[in-house]
Amino acid sequence: MVVSSADGPDSLTRVFDSLTPQQMRERGSLKWSQYPGDVIGAWVAEMDLGTAPAVERAIFGAVRDGLLGYMPPSVSQAVREETARYQHETFGWRVEAERVSLLPDVLSSLSAVIASHTREDSPVIVPTPAYMPFLEIPGHNGRTCIEVPSPRRQSQNGSPHWELDLDGIESAMAAGAGLLVLCNPWNPVGQVLSATQLDAVAALSSSYGVAVFADEIHAPLVLDDGLVHIPYASRPGADPDLTFTATAASKGWNIPGLKCAQLIASGRARMQWQADARTAHLEAKASVVGALATVAALRDGRDWLGEVCAYIRANRDMAGEALAGIEGMELTLPQATYLSWLDCRGLGLEQPARFFRKEAGVAMSEGATFGKAWSGFCRLNLATGRHIAQEAMHRISDAVRRLPRTVPS
Question: Alpha-carbon distance 37 to 5, whole Å?
Answer without folding.
Answer: 34
